[in-house]
Every structure is written in structure tokens, then in C-alpha cells.
Automatic annotation (TrEMBL):
The gene is ygfZ. This is tRNA-modifying protein YgfZ. InterPro entries: CAF17_C, TrmE/GcvT-like, YgfZ/GCV_T_CS, YgfZ/GcvT. Keywords: Transit peptide. Gene3D superfamilies: 2.40.30.160, Probable tRNA modification gtpase trme, domain 1 (3.30.1360.120). It comes from the Bacteria. Residues 242-311 form the CAF17 C-terminal domain. GO terms for biological process: iron-sulfur cluster assembly. Residues 311-333 are annotated as: Disordered.
Length: 333
């Protein structure tokens, strides 16, 4: 997992996470890189390249976006916010170099400027009111977790911003607290939780539905990988899905990211483990990509460690897709 340069915890990791349930914590996520895209053509430019609909959004818009390959596999996963004069996209440093290079190569004759911004990501989590502090951009994140606000602040002012927040009663917490909440919200980190075959529909939280914008807008087109998104949405289901695992806390060792999930007797791989972290309520938990036919009614293990798919993380079944229903009607005639 990408965590270079930031604190994993400050001596009380479970207490730091629990403080978000009833108060507010601030998590330094400055290991992420921020890319600024500006200019009159920026909305249309990004809209043609990424999975999110960005050509007509207003200042303050916040969501995520994916860069897919021609087969619909996820190459980059960025969080997005629009200010009055620019889009800001932040993502793990391990993805940032290739993503920045891709965007810059696609400029051609567009009136767009693409460059890395000297900004740091500072995340607030909690059930209490967030204090107001100066930031280049503020993003209220709509995700399946506790209230979250991302602040993009000048790197040179990061320490002062944290001090201001602490003086307002916010507790400083390490990345472990954020990671536990991220796992509970079923939000993946590409390098740890996905592989080179991962497609958007394997991660239900990435698909924009209802009040959650996700990272994929289902009513836009004209971006690389769109055909795979449309085909899975209308005709079938992904063979794997991202879920949360409950891990046997009595085991002497915990699973490692990338480890295979099997039945109790071993045999065929049924999935792979991603992020593993200790949670203040659930103990050891993990994200995992698991085959749909292994989601229910089957014992699962990672080596000698027993794991269980958390029932609350199972995807909602949406019934028969429109495209599949039309095919079935044609076959029945």
C-alpha cells in the first residue's frame, strides 16, 4: 500500500479511528500527488478521457474518475474536485507519474494546461461538524462511509493547517485510521486491492448510482474502455466483486495483500486479498476480490487463516439487466 512519507499512527491507532465516531480527526494524506488541469477546454478534455461526466459540472463538484484501457481495465483511479478556475485530481504517487504523462500527451491542440500542483491532501473524518480552514480546494466526499472532507492545501502550509485544526478540537490521526474507514466503505486502492484485470463493475462503489457519483457515469460515452462498462452494465455481471472480509483474530499470522483465497482444503483460487488493517470495532478486516460463486455459503481461507465475507458488503442484486432481458425475449420468440 502506498503510504510513504506519512504516519501510519501516532501511538494509539484504534483510539485515533474511534475518535472519528463522535468527533473529528485529521489524517495526513500528503503522500498523494495532485494534478491541476485548467484552461477553457479543461471540462471537455477530461470528459473525453475519463469515466466521469465532467463537461457540464459546476464549481464545487466532487467525485472520482477512472482512466481505463481499451479493454475496460482500470489504469488510474483519481479523486476529483472542481474549483472556480481548475480541476484538481489526486491519486497515489505510484500512479501519478504515468497519469500526468498520459494527460499531457493527450493535450494536442486543446486549450488546456496540465501540471503537478504543490498541494497536499489532508482528510477530515467524523460525525461532528467540520471546522473551516483555508484551502486551495475543499471536497466533501460522497462515499459509503462516515462523513469525509478532503482539503487540498499548499504543502508549505500543511503543518500550520494541522495546528489550526488541532486548536479547533480536531485530533490528528494516522493513515491506519483512514485505511480502516476506507475498507469499511469498500473503497479500493488500486495498487493493493486491484490487479491488472480489474474492471469497474468489480467494485460497486465505483459505479455512479443514486446519490453516490462514484467514478463511472453510466449515461456518458466517448471514453476509452466505455464498451466494457456498457456491456457489463447491460448484459451481465463481473465474475468477481470487491467485498470486506472478517479475519479470524486468533490466527498467529494475518493474510498478506495479494494472497490467494481458497476453500478450507485449498484447491482452486476463489479470490485475492487486498488491504489488511485492524479496525476499532471489527478487529482485523480486509478488502478482497472474490468470485461471485464463492460469496455465500462457502468456507473461505487464506492459507491456514479462516476468513468470512462480511454480509453487509455483499452487492445488491439489481435483477435482470435491460440488455439481457431483450436478448432473452428474442431467444424466446
Amino acid at each position: 500500500m502506498d503510504a510513504t512519507g506519512v504516519a501510519w499512527h501516532y501511538g494509539d491507532p484504534l483510539g485515533e479511528q474511534r475518535a472519528a465516531h463522535g468527533g473529528v480527526i485529521a489524517v495526513d494524506r500528503s503522500h498523494r500527488k495532485v494534478i491541476r488541469v485548467s484552461g477553457p477546454d479543461a471540462p471537455g478534455f477530461l470528459n473525453t478521457l475519463l469515466s466521469q461526466k465532467l463537461d457540464d459540472v459546476a464549481s464545487g463538484f466532487a467525485a472520482a474518475a477512472l482512466d481505463l484501457d481499451i479493454q475496460g481495465r482500470i489504469l488510474h483511479h483519481a479523486d476529483v474536485v472542481l474549483t472556480d478556475d481548475a480541476f484538481y485530481l489526486d491519486l497515489p504517487a505510484t500512479q501519478a507519474v504515468t497519469f500526468l504523462d498520459f494527460l499531457q500527451k493527450m493535450v494536442f491542440w486543446s486549450q488546456v494546461e496540465v501540471a503537478e500542483a504543490e498541494l497536499a491532501v489532508l482528510t477530515l473524518l467524523g460525525d461532528a461538524e467540520f471546522p473551516t480552514v483555508a484551502a486551495e480546494a475543499t471536497r466533501d466526499v460522497q462515499w459509503a462511509g462516515i462523513p469525509r472532507r478532503d482539503l487540498l492545501v499548499e504543502r508549505s502550509t500543511l503543518t500550520d493547517t494541522v495546528a489550526t485544526l488541532e486548536s479547533a478540537g480536531v485530533r490528528l490521526a494516522g493513515l491506519m485510521a483512514f485505511t480502516a474507514e476506507r475498507v469499511r466503505a469498500l473503497e479500493p486502492e488500486k495498487a493493493t486491492d486491484l490487479d491488472d484485470k480489474s474492471i469497474p463493475h468489480e467494485i460497486p462503489t465505483l459505479i455512479g448510482r443514486g446519490d453516490l457519483p462514484g467514478a463511472v457515469h453510466l449515461e456518458k460515452g466517448c471514453y476509452r474502455g466505455q464498451e466494457t462498462v456498457a456491456r457489463v452494465e447491460n448484459l451481465g455481471r463481473s465474475p468477481r466483486v470487491l467485498v470486506m472480509l472478517q479475519i479470524d483474530g486468533s490466527a498467529p499470522e494475518e493474510p498478506e495483500p495479494g494472497a490467494e483465497i481458497t476453500g478450507p482444503q485449498g484447491g482452486r483460487a476463489l479470490g485475492r486479498v487486498g488491504t489488511v488493517v485492524h479496525d476499532c470495532d471489527f478487529g482485523p478486516i480486509a478488502l478482497a476480490l472474490v468470485r461471485r460463486n464463492a460469496l455465500e455459503g462457502q468456507e473461505l481461507c487464506v492459507g491456514s487463516v479462516s476468513v468470512m465475507v462480511d454480509p453487509s458488503s455483499l452487492p445488491e442484486e439489481r435483477g435482470e439487466q435491460a440488455g439481457r432481458a431483450a436478448i432473452n425475449r428474442l431467444r424466446g420468440n
